[in-house]
Amino acid sequence: MEFDLSKPQKLLKDTAREFLSRHCNSKRVRELMNTETANDDELWQAMADQGWTGLVIPEEYGGMGAELLDLAVVCEEMGNACLPGAFQATLFSTALIDRAASQTQKAHYLEAIASGSLKATVAQLEETADWDLDAIKLKAVRDNGRMLVSGRKLFVPDAASADLLICVATNGESPVILPISKGAEGVEIKSMPSMDATRKLYEVGFNNVSVNGSDVFGADGNARGALVQATQAATVALCAEMVGGMQWILDTTVDYAKTRHQFGRPIGSFQAVQHQCADMLLMTESARSATYYAAWAVTEGVPNAGTAVSIAKAYCSDAFREVGNRGVQVHGGIGFTWEHDLQLYYKRSKAAETMFGDATFHRERIARAVVDSN
């Protein structure tokens, strides 16, 4: 793979940074995180007009047909801006629809997502908060050509602002993917406390919710494979966002170390502070390399793509938190006050750490992959 971004990707990155600096500065982030949904319809439509909501959607469905690495470049800038709202949730949904839905279903949903008229989220986690597909216990029961589901899902991101809920249930043997429209009868959405106020979490209850059997995703019998592939793509995008957050912390911390004076000299002149910044740079660049490689591996369909994704997520989960820790140490007490933006990124790091599985979860996957290959 080419280890440097292409000229179009560099232009895309610069354009994304300039757009977000105008439309999503820290003041706007704080305003949105204090709302019920952290959603801004005008900002969402502006991103859709940029082509971001349809970046990896095939051209035949109104998207741009770009590669996962192109999306990672944009997500990195979103992480740098601490973008609030449902982009990551919709991205996971988009990847799942693209891999599990029929041609008719893709045309219906993907064209709406690409145009910015539809937001979506995936309801997968339950009481165990386990990202393993075998941990799904919510039953989908077939009844006269329809699928009925009753139970609840937890930690569903941006459910209140989503127009489409994609519920991942089980028929006892394999996953069942159920698209449920916003406001469907029997659906109840309750807010849950979350570490990251820019990305709201919800409990979603299903009371005998009915879905037409012909509307179910994964009718070709490969719902599990579609879920695995979609989760890999969404995890790469999340890792890229985490890298963007690390870069913001690093840049902000280095600038602070240059201007904050103690004992008549900038604190950046002290070796202990220099070591902290050097470690932050190492972790950020390593996370970026792992993420870009994972994006390439998933795009090319290499045999170890799943392991590459797990390596990237395990490393980013630890590195983002640790970069945040060191950023706070260099800033001192001001680094974790409400007035300073660093606390926004530190909280984002803790929330992103567990999404799609934490470092321990992915290290176990890597270990199983190594054992299976021998």
Account of the protein in words:
This protein has 374 residues and is α+β, with helices and mostly antiparallel strands. Helices cover 53% and strands 15% of the residues. It has helices at residues 7-23, 26-33, 41-49, 68-81, 87-100, 103-115, 223-259, 271-300, 305-331, 342-354, 359-373; strands spanning 120-123, 140-143, 146-157, 164-170, 175-181, 187-192, 201-212, 261-262, 265-266. The protein has a four-stranded antiparallel beta sheet with strand order 2-3-7-6, with no helix packed on it. Helix 5 (87-100) packs antiparallel against helix 6 (103-115) and helix 7 runs antiparallel to helix 8 (271-300). The radius of gyration is 21 Å and the shape is globular. The relative contact order is 0.11.
Estimate what percentage of residues fall within beta strands: 5-15%
Percent in helix: 40-55%
Mean of all residue-level pLDDT scores: 95
Distance between the termini: 26 Å
Count of DSSP strands: 9
How many DSSP helices?
Answer: 11
Radius of gyration, in angstroms, nearest whole number = 21 Å
Order of helices and strands: HHHHHHEEEEEEEHEEHHHH
Shape: globular
Strand order of the largest sheet: 2-3-7-6
How is the main sheet built? 4 strands, antiparallel
> In terms of per-residue confidence, which ranges show pLDDT below 50 for 5 or more consecutive residues?
none
Going by helix content, strand content and strand pairing, the class is alpha+beta
